[in-house]
Amino acid sequence: MGDAFVVASARTPFGRYGGALAGLRPDDLAATALTALLARVPGLDPAEVEDVVWGCANQAGEDNRNVGRMAVLLAGLPTSVPATTINRLCGSSLDAAIVGSRAIESGDADAVVVGGVESMSRAPWVLPKPERAYPAGHVTAVSTTLGWRLVNERMPAEWTVSLGECNEQLAERFTISRERQDESAARSHALAAQAWAEGFYDDLVVPVPGVDLARDESIRDGSTPEKLAGLAPSFRSADVGGTITAGNSSPLNDGASAVLLGSAVLADRHDLTPLARVAGRGVHALDPQDFGYAPVEAANTALRRAGIGWGDVGAVELNEAFAVQSIACVDAWSREGLDPEVVNAKGGAIAIGHPLGASGGRVLGTLAARLSESGQRWGVAAICIGVGQGLAVVLENVTSGVRS
What we know:
alpha+beta; 12 strands; Peroxisomal Thiolase, Chain A, domain 1; two-stranded antiparallel sheet
């Protein structure tokens, strides 16, 4: 078995719902990220890419018919470059990285591009086909932007509640207050704005041609817990203890991310300096309504497979679907030795955004860049996934000056 390395990454800015990127088809967004990624490795002939593994959570509209393959074709890569599209909802592009890294480690490939895309703005409405011809009644168009749709009536009701209600239950279970959630959300905005101002994202984020969007569109400079405290709960009313608001949840977004994974053979062939080695992977599942807590055991599994513990970890990128689930996960890991301050030190999804299929690639690329910047040796990228799943990847910094 060989090693799989993160060689390079690129992503678009993440646009808000109905915002600057809403006019772009998801396959065009995907092609933009793919083109920008390969431009960062100029010595690599695109024909050397042996597979493209792409994540997308919706796949009901313009992102149908294998959007990964559409991106390859639209980006002008040789038609000999294959591609597949996979769907593990919010974890799709981190799942793509897991699939791609396994292919490299097993010797099936030396160069695999992984990533993902989502246009939540352009997600279509869908109609079920009628059970019989010429129905007389009305039908309802169902939005595919987020969450359950066309639910099987055999599913237990407790499994199919809204994502927000799931996390209200998590807040109750772990006694996580509205105040803690708002503080966490304000921290996300402050750190994201600071990271952009200091130039951290300049080398990670690429412009989208024809679009005037210089940074992630959902970041709100000057967000404070006090301002966020003025927002009304979105899923339960305040008089029955509702704590989750639009301000302490991730927004709806559009965007794409891409990561080049390569073997040692590829690095030697092109004199490339990889950023990090994929050292461990983990997947976990639990009751669907508890999905926000699934990263806990996914990350613990990945750490065990990497042969390290939380006390060794110097950087964590945890996708913030909701502040409450992020707090619950970090609390659990902190009890095992994690320093909470190393989590999302460049901002999280509450500020940056969460275009479902692209978020896993974002956290992985950001983690590799953070390890390179800080010199820390070990990092974890983790994400929760609707319907009760979580994924995690451990990276080991392989750049010079690594801290033990």
